[in-house]
Every structure is written in structure tokens, then in C-alpha cells.
Amino acid sequence: MGEWRIMNLDQWLPVFVVLSSLLTGIIIFFLKEEQHGIRTALNMAGAIIKLIVIGVMLHGVFHEQVYEFRLPLLPGLDLVLRADALAMLFVVLSAVLWLVTTVYAIGYLEGSPNRSRFFAFFSLCVTSTMGISLAGNLFTFLIFYEALTIATYPLVVHRGTQKALRAGTIYLIYTLGGGAILLTGVVWLHILTGSVEFTQGGAIGQLGAGERPVLTLIFFILILGLGVKSALVPLHGWLPIAMVAPAPVSALLHAVAVVKAGAFGIARIVYNVYGIEFAADLGVTFPLAVAASVTIVYGSLLALKQDELKKRLAYSTVSQLSYIALGMAVAGPLSMVGGLVHIVHQGIMKITLFFCAGNLAETLGIHHIHEMDGVGRRMPWTMAAFTVAAFGMIGVPPTAGFISKWYLGLGALEAEQPWVLAVLVVSTLLNAAYFLPIVRAAWFGKPPEAWSDDRGAGRFETDWTLLAPPIFTALLTLGAGLVASMPISPLQWARLITQREYWP
Amino acid sequence: MNGIVSIPWVAWAVLFPLASAILSFLLGQKRVLWAGIPGVFGTFLSVLLLSSQVWQQGPQRYAIGGWRAPLGIEWHVDGLSIVMLLMTAVSGLFISIYAVGYYSRQSRGHKHSNNLFWPLWLFLWAALNGLFLSADLFNLYVTLELAGIAAVALVTLTGGQVALSAGLRYLLAALLGAMSYLMGVALLYASFGVLDIRMLSALAAPGPAVFISATLMTLGLLIKTALFPLHFWLPPAHANAPAPVSAMLSGLVVKGSFYLMMRLWVEVFPSSLWPIGGQFLGVLAGAAILWGSIMALRQGSLKMTIAYSTVAQIGYLFLFFPLASPRLFIAEGEVSGPGLYAFWGCVYQALSHALAKAAMFMAAGNIMRVLGHDCIGRMDGVNQRLPLTLFAFGLSGVSLMGLPPSGGFVAKWLLLKAALEKEHWGLVLIIVAGGLLASAYVFKVLKHALAQSSQNDLLERVPPTMDIPTLILATLSLLLGFTARPLLSLLTRGSIF
């Protein structure tokens, strides 16, 4: 009896993770604008409850416990939420960064209109991300993947200006188009195989040889659909434009929600639908590796040309994201570790950079890199966090970025694809070329007599709700690198996933 | 308990709205709601109880006055009819609540509209329920005709030049359609001497008489359902009617003639009609989806956009004909395959469109009430004044676009699956493109509504009876995404097919 009860509760844990932000979002939507006390309490309670439930599941998944919830939607087709090791990697990242970003957003949006709508859709956005992470089959993944598109739109156009509305339209054209392509691929795959459960080692490897050409075609359709959100060149056009959104949205968009959903989807397709060995056997991984490499270099080149800080960061996202796809496409255990761990590492580094950019804009009205001379003296903590994250992006040890690049490099050698090393080297040089000048100007540049648009410091260099989040994520960036060999690090978790994929 | 089960709810589903229609007409202006509200809830409950009967006991036949066919009139209820009845009941309930709010403020200037709305609407509801329950061709004609006349009268309720001319066009189309259908029926009756669907399906062998009458009846129903290119009457009629009327016309009335079309093709007409006829209807359906969506995108007024969206969404319904095959329904025991998916997909499309489109027209009514106009280009600030309504509009838009997790998504998934399985690549493309075009026109509206407005003065508020039912109906269209299993299982219960 007791056993039965425990089993039953286990089944509901993934549902709680999704509901904790869904219900919060729905209640917040109906709150009045001025009820910010209740709104903040709800936001924090939702985020913290979610983290507690995730903590329990993390422990269980490590010990090979299964948490699975099934709801039949159509004959032969279930909505499945399942916590496996790969799901937990993304769930933990999203939940932690959601909490941090919520704190940041509360400070950032203070006094601006439509906050109830903002936080409601913010919660729906996280709900969709949780669903994407925990989706146990391709059908469920598709549901939340599309829901994410819709939930994000009101956030992108939040300010309601003509520029924001235009960005929203472009965002929709790309993402809805990608979604439609993805839908076609998913339905097609269902016709061949029935329901596609995410399975360690691949779900469709057992299909006959006659299906190989169709399966290859479907692979590329699926990647094309997912490539929009993960900003593979030439499908990346929406990302730099969408950064007109408020800073917390950009931060979440670039680190967790939208772009990561695409990259995570590619991981699910490669590892849990096709299976890495079957995909390599089909010969579909090499074109993916080429596309990823092109994106890495091209994104960095464009980043170099930007003077607007957020734009430079956005192109840097385009580039950095494809490390994840590259790690998967190189088809070897070590590069898989590198790609997976970069899902987390890119998230914590990029969110730090966007928080810092938001602080500069909010506190001093700085939007461009040429205005940043000497800003390190006015806002030392913000710029310290920025520096750590920028070093991480370049791959300087002991930051998180170094770990990613190290494993990607080792993986390339292990898979006997040395050309990948060249891509990594070129990209690292470019990363340095577009981040180091900012760092140098901020610390060693000559500050102006007075900051033209200074809104005052308060007790710290800016409001504490704006300052604490980037410092926290910068510490994570350092920590993920420093304690990489400890069992709680993202690296060790990525190794666990790899182990289960290759040697189930 | 036993008593409730044995009551013939089939009869009450029609008698309730009919009686209250007459009563509300007799009570007149001031006390119209005394009959209207009990009528609405009574009808809703009757349908609910009837569906539980069908769920438990399977399909039912009910001979009016105890006279069996072919002499008397029989009513028949199976999975398909009950799903359509439920669709009408749920939409109808919330449209009615909305109408209470809609007419409570407007009543001064428009004495007649309030006066006649309730009798006409309940009469329409009775006719639709009768249509879904009838089992012989003549009875079907009568109910279809009654529904059409009530609908035309409802369109002209606001008075005014535009509404009258739209109503006239609608009347013309309705009459043409009815005449064409009736000639077909007459021809069948002359050839076989029966009108009961079940008897006809056994008798009607392929031959010139059957083909001609099938063509005539189909043509009539196509006009009534407004399938491209016979949709000319729909946009002005649906766009110029009062909001609750637009909601029921777009959501429900066109489904009535589509339902009849489906039943005739599956049950009465010989299967040799399917290959050519089905493909032909498929071409029209595809054209409707593309043309309707593009026209919706080009409209400047909100209600015209929504009306053209209906033209497009009707196209999806007719994908049933190229994708289903009669063999599926005749050969017993086949439980999967593209034909079944197409059947499920189209019925689900009818359901989710009924809820979503009704909600969308109701939202448009709220927006017009507050802004005083429905020009999309001047909708900035709707977001601040009508957050709930705009949210409802967005939710129903999600269903129209076929995005998850909505009823529209389930329909699109099933149809796409049927099309891919039949390797009907043209339709695959159209289904996908139709979804994208739908997002284009829905987001065009949302984009303007989300724009920051400089003026924040509230001109007029809408009562909660107007924005709450809108939100509920829109939410239901979304929740339909989670109820496919029980509904599809009810649909196949004692299926005629």
C-alpha cells in the first residue's frame, strides 16, 4: 500500500514541475496592475516550489528512478512527461535561471505598465520550456515547442512600440514557419513508426533498410524545423532583431527559453529518436556538423561588426549555440559531453552578459560599445560579472566555457575529425576579438566627466535586484569550471547522460 | 435515476427550444428572458442527458407519435449527431449568456432587435437540433430550411441598409440552395418511393437518377455551407450581423448543412461517386483554404477578417471528401487508416471551429462596443481596455491556427496524418500553408491591438456577461485539445458509418 502511494506520487512530480509555473501564470494574468506584492509572492513561490520538486527528481533520476506521467490524447498517442537524465539537465538550468531572471525582472520592470501580462506570459514561457524538457515523446515535445512560440510573442512585443511590433512579426514568421515544417516531419515520422518515444540509444533504429532514404529526408525536415529556434545560419535572422525585447526577456530568450529549445530538440532527435549510431550510419551527422561550423564562424564574424552591445551579444549567441549542435554532430562520446554541457554553460554565461547589458542600459543609458569607456569604475560589480562571462565565452580556464571547448576539442580528435579543431580555434580567436576590446575599454578606458544619463546609484552601483542576478550567474560560470570534477557539476551530469546513451 | 434514463430526451432536445421560442415571442419585449433563459438551460440539459443516454445505450431511434417509418417520422441519434448536438449546446449556452449582456444595454435604441432575437435564436436552435436528429430526407429539408430562414431573419436584426442587403443576399443563397436540394430529394423519391436514409441506402443503386439527384443535393448544400466559390453571401452576412448572431452563424449554422452533406455522401450516395466527386470537392476545399485566408488577411475590418476566416475554415471540413473513402465505412471492423483519421479530423475541425469562431466573433463584439468601430488599423490600446477579451481572441486564434494544445491542433494533426498517409502531397502543403496564413491574419489583429496607445480613457465598459463567456468559450476551444479521446469514442459510438 505504502509502496503504491509512493509510485503514484512519483508519477505526478513531472506534472507539478509544469503546473507550478502554469498556475502561477494564470493567476497572475487576472491580478490587477498594482497588486505587485501578491504578484511577487506568487512568482517566487512558484519558482521555489518548482526547484524543490526538481531537487527530489534529480536525486531520483541519478539513482535510475523513473518519473513518468501519461495522458492519452488521441488513440495511440499520449502526452508523456518523463524525467530522464537529459531532461533534468535542461529542467535544472531553466528552473534556476527562471528564479534568477524573475528577481531581475521585478527590479527591471518596476513602475512600467502591463506587468501582470508580462509576468503571466513569462510564467507560460517557462511552463513551455519545462514541457519541452520533460517531453517523453516527439508528440509532446511538439506541443510544448509550439506553445513556447505563442507564449513568447507577447514578451517580445511587450513595449508595444513600432520597432517591437515589427520584431515580433519577424519572430513569428521565422518560428511559426519552422514549427509548420517541424509538424510535417513529426507527422510523417509517426506514419512510419507510430508513436515516437524518446529512447536512450534511439527509437527508430529497428526500421528496415528500405526506409533509409525517407528517414534521411525526415531527419533534415526535423532539423530544418528546429534550426529556426536554434538559429542555425541561414535561419538565424530573427534572433538579433528580437533583442528589442526588455532585457530580462532577451536574457531568458538567449540563455534558456527559445534558442535552447531548438538546440535541445536537436539533441532529442539525434540521441533519442534516431540514436547517435544510427544517425551516423545514415550519414546525416556530417552535414549537421558543417552547418554548425558555418554558423559558429559566421555568427562570430557578424558579432565583430556590431557596435550596439545587445546586437553583438545576439550574434554571439548565434555562434555559441552551434557548439551544442556541433558536439552532437561530431558523433563521439567526448564531443557529446562537450555539446551537452554547453547547453548549461552557454546558458549561465549568456544570461550574465545580458543582465549586465540591461544594467548598463537601465542605470547609465548605455546601449553602445563606444560609450563604455571606463564604465568599470562606475559599475565595478556589473563589469566584473561581465568580464567573467566574456572570458567564459572565449574559453579561458577555469571558466565554464573552457570545459565545453576542451571536451569538444577532445571529442573531435577522438572521432578523427581534426578539422573541427580548426573551427574551434578560429572561433575562439574571433570570440576574443569581439569580447576583449569591450573588457579593455570598460576597465582601462577613460571615463567621461559625468555619465550623461545616470539614474543614481542608491546603496549599490544600481538596484540590488539588478545587481544580484548577474553576480550570481557569474559565480556559477566560475563554479561550473572550478568544480567540474565534482559529482554535482553540469559536466558530470553530461557524462552520466552520455554513458546512458552509449552504454545503456 | 431510472426515470431520467427512460425519458425520451431526443424529443426534448427539439421541443424545449421550440416551446420556449414561441413562449418568448408571446411574452414580448419586457419578459422575453423569462422564457429565453429557461429555454436555453433546458435545451442544454436535454442534450447533455441525451448524450449520456447515447454513451450508455448506444444509438437511439424515436418514432414521433409512435408511427414508424416509412409512414411516420422517425428521429435517429448516433455518435455523429450527438457530437453535433453537443457542439451546438455548448456554443449556444455561452452565446446566449453573451446575448443577455449584449442586448441589456442596447435595448433602448433597438426595441425590435431585442424583441425578436430570443424567439429567432431559440427557433434556430430547435431547427438545428431537429436537423441533427432527423433520419429522412424530407424532414432534413424542412429543418434545414427553417434554420436558414431563422438565420436570415437574425442577420437583418440590426436593420440598416448594409445589414438588409447582406440579409437579402443570404436569403437568395439560402433559397437557391434549398431549391436545388429539394429537386434532388424529389427525384430520389420519384425513383425509389422512400425518404428514410436507412431504407434509401439499401435501395439506391448507381444510375442516372441517383447521380443527378446527388449532384443537385450536393450543389444545394455547397451553397448553404458556402464552400468556395459559392461563398459570396457569407462574408457580408456574417460580418454585418450583431455579434451573438455572427457567432452562431459562423460557428453553428454552416455546420448544419455540412453535417447533412457528410451523412448523404456516406450513407445514401453510391460509393462510385467518391473517387471523382471526392477529388473535385478536395480541389474546392483547397482553394477555399487559400482564398479565404488570403482574403481574411486583406480585410481592414475585424469582422470581415473573421468572416473570411470562416470561408477558409470551412475548406478544412471538406477535406473529408478527398481523404476519406467509402470503403472504410462499408467494410466493417476497419478501425484505422486515413479514412477514419479524415472523418475524425473533420468532425473535430467542426467542433473546435464552432467554439473558437463563436468566441472570436464575441470578442470582436466587445471590441466594437468599446471602440465604437472595428477597423483593425485603429485598434491600438485594446490591450489596456479589454485584456480579457484580447486574451480570449488570442486563445481562439491559437485554435484556428491549429497550434497545440488546442482542438484545432488535434484536427490538423489528424487531417495531416490522413493526407500524408494517402500521399496526397498537394493537400499536405495546403493544410500546412493554411495554418500559417491563419497565423498571419490572427497576429495582424493582435499586433495592432498590442500597440501602445496614447489615450487611456475608457469610453465604455463591457459587462462581465460579455467578456466572461467569450473567455470561457475560447478556453474551451483550447481544452478540446485534451478531450479528443472521449469525444472521438462518443463519435464512433453506434456509428452510422
Overall description:
The complex is a heterodimer of chains A (504) and B (497). A two-stranded antiparallel sheet of chain A has the order 1-2. Chain A contains 20 helices and 2 strands. Chain A has 504 residues and is mainly α. Chain A has a domain at 291-504. The longest helix of chain A is centred in the middle third of the chain and has 32 residues, at 162-193. Chain B is mainly α. Chain B has a domain at 272-497. Chain B is built from 22 helices and 2 strands. At the A-B interface, strand 1, helix 5 and helix 6 of A face helix 18, helix 19, helix 20 and helix 22 of B.
Quick description:
The complex is a heterodimer of chains A (504) and B (497). Chain A has 504 residues and is mainly alpha-helical. Chain A is built from 20 helices and 2 strands.
- Overall 3D geometry of chain A? globular
Largest beta-sheet details of chain B: 2 strands, antiparallel
What's the SSE pattern of chain A?
Answer: HHEEHHHHHHHHHHHHHHHHHH
Order of helices and strands of chain B: HHHEEHHHHHHHHHHHHHHHHHHH
- The N- and C-terminal alpha carbons of chain B lie at a distance of 31 Å
Q: Largest sheet of chain A, order of strands side by side?
A: 1-2
Low-confidence stretches of chain B: 107-112, 330-334
* Helix share, percent of chain A: over 70%
